[in-house]
Amino acid sequence: MRILYVALTRAKEKLIMVTSVKNEKYIEGFSQGTDEKISAGQLLDATSPGDWLLMIKNFVQNEIDVEQIPAETILPGAEKISDEETLQPEEELTAPDRLESSPLENIPAKFSVTELKRRIAESEEEENFSQPEEIFGEKVYKKNPFRRPNFLREKRLSNTEFGTLMHTVMQQLDLSGRLDREGISEQVDKMVERKLILPEHSEKVKEKSDGIANFFTGDLGQKVIRAKEIYRELPFIRYIEAEKLQAGKIFENVAGEKIFIQGIIDLLFKDSASGEWILLDYKTDRDNSDEHFRKEYGEQIRLYTQAVESLLNLKVAEKYLYLLGSARLVSMNDL
Length: 335
Hints:
By secondary structure, this protein is an alpha/beta fold. Helix content is 35%, strand content 16%. The strands form two sheets. Strands 1, 4, 5, 6, 7 and 8 form a six-stranded mixed sheet that branches.
């Protein structure tokens, strides 16, 4: 989405975009009427920026022209080159001299908190899985040595997609409405009607409704319901020193360099009784020990806390993870 935004906002006179489309349902345009809205679920269903653009073409018929070009027109079958037709020595291409590597070449200008967590995890996995072992006479790495082929896999939401779905539901819940299992199911049905989520995804959410309901019956959930000041899905961006992001040793030689960090805080609210601010992050991970989650998400919560205290000038008194799958609260206060 960020790349598409940049592409759409740089042209001065005329913008020409070329995209390949695999999903034929978008070729004729998503909507046959200009009064129909595109839901968040349908946007998430897209597989490329091209799908998004084709979704809206019927909304802006007078603004853009869409030309379809069959793949065969662009990539006709190339004739096989015989061995005799190889390049002559004088025609061979030579590579330019390689420039000296810069220590900053692998450091992005902007970094999301989620990407940072992934980089840290990868650096730890490299240490844990760096030694191959022999299986059936071949050396393979311990991490996922046997990957099932695509046609044997059940088509379902990926972990990332399911996490996005559950975060959407938690963001859209009416905290003044019923928050027991039945009430949550009713609210999910209304989200489908409002096209916030897809109908086929609603059952997946309802399967986890116990975890959501248990949260709101607990002490922390009751504080959320009573809160007068509350932020949900709070985005932030900070410009900080790259040296402070060296957890997991993902960067080297970055003294004096700065980087943008961006993220979204799931929930930040002020306890109406104590007046203290509490930060909460939802997770859909499989259940594990508290120590595992503190190690896995400690850096993320630390950056969220720093963002709140630096940008909003609010002191975060308590920090938690809530595991929607196992209906369990993990304290992050000892970080």
